[in-house]
Design goal:
This protein is an alpha+beta fold and about 130 residues long. It contains 7 helices and 3 strands. A hairpin with a 2-residue loop joins strand 1 and strand 2.
Length: about 130
């Protein structure tokens, strides 16, 4: 049986490598840097990292000589360079509020009293009361 990561790795070169780096990014970069940056792609031997401000882009650039050996050591992925870019994280598109699928039925109480089956009549009364 094949693992899905192996199939994706054959189709999209380097998929398993970036997943491994992403999963270990906090251990590689440290909690503070990892909370402001995100590895998104390995293209060739370059790791692309998105940061939430230009200051963190500069920090990744400064620390790249330290991060490259850590990536090799922790994730076992050979990287020769790191390219950091600033990107604004977009909020998800707000979804429209949907109406409730079930509303209290508009049933005349006199019609309920005419239901011959007592169990059904009681169930309908409970349904009307909510």
């Amino acid at each position: 049986m094949q693992r899905i990561s192996d199939i994706l790795d054959r189709k999209y070169k380097g998929f398993s490598r970036i997943i491994k780096v992403r999963n270990l990014w906090t251990e590689i970069a440290g909690e503070v840097l990892a909370s402001h940056s995100e590895p998104v792609q390995i293209k060739g031997k370059t790791l692309w990292v998105l940061c939430d401000s230009p200051a963190w882009v500069q920090q990744v650039d400064i620390l790249s000589l330290t991060l490259i050996p850590r990536i090799r050591q922790v994730a076992g992925t050979k990287i020769e360079s790191i390219e950091a870019r600033f990107a604004v994280k977009r909020d998800p598109v707000p979804r429209k509020k949907t109406k409730k699928a079930f509303a209290r039925p508009d049933i005349d109480p006199a019609d309920v009293e005419r239901i011959p089956n007592p169990d059904l009549r009681n169930a309908v009364k409970k349904l009307i009361k909510g």
